[in-house]
Amino acid sequence: MKKNLLNAVSAVLLLWGQHACAQTTLLNVSYDVAREFYKDFNSAFVADYKKTTGKDIKIDQSHGGSSAQARAVNDGLAADVVTMNTTTDVEFLASTGVVSKDWNKQFAFDASPTTSTMLFLVRRGNPKGIKDWNDLLKSDVKIVVVNPKTGGNGRMAYLAAWGQVRKNGGTDAQAQEFVTKMYKNVPILAKGGRDATSIFLQRNTGDVLITFESEVVSVNREFGEGKVDVIHPSSSIVAENPIAIVNRTVDKKGTREQARAYLDFLYSDAGQEIAARHAIRPRSQVILDKHKDIFKPIQFFTVADYFGSFSEAQKVHFNDGGLFDKIYTTGK
Question: Measured on CA atoms in the order 304, 309, 312, 314, is the torsion positive or negative?
Answer without folding.
Answer: positive
